[in-house]
Design goal:
α8 runs antiparallel to α10. Strands 1, 2, 3, 4, 5, 6, 7, 8 and 9 form a 9-stranded mixed beta sheet that branches. By secondary structure, the chain is of the alpha/beta class. About 30% of the residues lie in helices and about 25% in strands.
């Protein structure tokens, strides 16, 4: 988990404006696991995925490099620590599940996969979770243009890997097919979407250079959106694989 832009120091507010993952995702993950003792969420941020995993595993640990993010995690049954994805402080064969939600692009590959192999139990699951660019009901191109054109100079190259669902990443073991019907939906006012956009790392990068593309975009967003709520949907993608048995 390499150093991230200053956005990720705003852990106390960050989790308020990120979309939560749907319960059916974690139900599916639990159904794929043979044991439900220990789950690890890497790149956990403020613990969104951790809190959802608590209903399916006896113990949940979240790990991230950002202390500010970890301090921003609301109190729950999960436990948190600062750790690198390629140097985890756990014994061999510790976990029944490792999840990486919207964070794989920060990890050193393939070293992370070797470390996951070490700390996963035999037949345990590794799940790479991501959501694509959101679509707003009635405004099909507005967010795409802001993301793809206006913010293009400020995104890291790895951003396009996230948007594609990490399809360019070769998993360490045969892929375990996930449901295609998963998605995240919210009904938002334009101000809610603006707060979500403000969590994007490209904006933190632009502001570090004295630019503020979101400030310039907000009048256009408000005018196009109006004062009503609109449905906002993110396509959810899961790439999962199972650590093989050793013979």
């Amino acid at each position: 988990m390499s150093d991230r832009p200053s956005l990720f120091q705003r852990g106390g507010q960050y989790h308020l404006y990120r979309p939560d993952y749907p319960e059916n995702l974690f139900r599916w993950l639990g159904d794929q696991c043979f044991e439900h003792q220990w789950a690890l969420d890497l790149g956990c941020g403020t613990g969104q995925a951790c809190r959802s995993l608590e209903g399916h595993f006896q113990h949940v640990i979240g790990a991230d490099l950002s202390l500010a993010q970890l301090r921003g995690a609301p109190a729950s049954a999960s436990h948190y620590l600062a750790a690198r994805a390629d140097a985890l402080p756990f014994a061999d064969g510790s976990f029944d599940l490792i999840t990486v939600a919207q964070a794989l692009h920060w990890f050193p590959l393939p070293m992370f996969f070797k470390e996951a192999e070490r700390v996963l139990r035999e037949d345990a699951l590794l799940a790479i979770i991501s959501y694509g660019l959101c679509q707003v009901e009635g405004l099909p191109d507005l967010i795409d243009d802001f993301h793809d054109r206006v913010l293009a100079p400020w995104w890291p190259a790895a951003r396009w890997s996230v948007i594609s669902g990490y399809r360019n990443v070769t998993l360490p073991w045969p892929e375990h097919k996930a449901p295609e019907s998963l998605g995240i939906e919210r009904h938002w006012h334009w101000r809610d979407l603006a707060a979500y956009l403000d969590t994007w790392s490209a904006l933190a990068k632009a502001r570090s250079f004295g630019k503020d593309p979101l400030r310039d975009f907000l009048p256009q967003l408000e005018q196009a959106w109006g004062e009503k709520t609109r449905k906002v949907r993110w396509p959810l993608r899961v790439r999962a694989c199972r650590r093989p048995r050793e013979y």
